[in-house]
Amino acid sequence: MKKYYTSGKYKAQSEIRRKKFDKRNARTKYKRSVGLHLKKHYPLVDDDRLEIYNDAHYRKTSHDHLIDVWAPEILSFIRNPNDVLAFINRLRSHFLDRLPVFVKLDNVREMDHDGIVILLSIMVRFKAFKIDFNGSFPKDAVCKDKLKRSGFLKYLYSEFENTDEYNLSKSLIHTSANKDVDSELSSKLIEEASVTVWGQKRRCQGVQRALIELMHNTNNHANLLQERHQHFWISVNHMPEENKVSFTFLDFGVGVFTSLNNKPVDNKFGNWLPKMLAKFSFETNAKLLDLILNGQLHETVTGKAYRGKGLPGIKEVFDRNDISNLHIITNDVHAMLSVNKYSLIEEQFHGTFVYWELNTSNKSCNWYE
User: Fold this and answer.
1) pTM of the model
2) Which tens digit of pLDDT belongs to each residue from 109-146?
3) Cβ(255)–Cβ(353) below 8 Å
4) pLDDT one-digit tens code per residue, 146-198
């Protein structure tokens, strides 16, 4: 009788076991080699160890099921709006189609705080809807370090649910997303910012007004079908060596002009266009945004004196020198208020982005408990 261990069935089972053993052994050997390298060269720095492991992991792990999306070389919304918007819109398209992405940051050589905030907010949206989101690191050492210090890596490997509020504050950058007007949050952010700028707590009524107006705008106008539907993102970047703090406000709603063009007839702005054209000449949204920020849309359409609400209220804050270096990007317009310039941009931004700075030249008041 033929012995079992010489049979074809036994040999086939042995071959399967051998392949499993070889695969397990190779995986263990790879993990050990990475771990020994980290232990030898990075014995104390956990973030660096995590980063190098993941660099090796990206090289070893196939991400064929992910769609590569290349980030622009200058990842700054206020300095490079067209390229950043093209990047955002590619990610938006994949998000709407529920397609997983692999963000290629390899070629990024300049990165500003606002670019990191946009990247964070997009990442959270993907992960909250359980769509795979991964990426590579910039080859540029300065950008790589800036991304790491921002706390981005900590959140890249976190799980998120689709909730009303996110708090991403495990870093030098405080970033929060919410759907509600939150005066307590804005007060806390302003208190911390004033200490960075003036070395003590100060009241910054203009900053408080700007934040509250933007929160209200997102709640009331960012979604065409229902209020309080869109998240707004507030991020604060402290620069103590310059006695300066920057604020970034972001929502991925519909933008100012899309919202305006879709007002129902019974809304106070429902018949805005013929009234404005009867009084003003404007061929582009760039000129229209100028009129809006100066309160002329509200006064012309409603027939009432302008009371400083919404975006015009934020321009008033800027004009009073309560804030500096104000930028507004919405739909196809980039407004640079510091140089009174309104430019059309090639890409369409589905949302509203507002950036400003607070420094020692801006107005503030004594703090009181």
Assistant:
1) 0.76
2) 999 989 988 988 888 888 888 898 988 889 999 999 88
3) no
4) 888 777 766 665 665 555 455 555 444 455 555 555 677 788 889 999 999 99
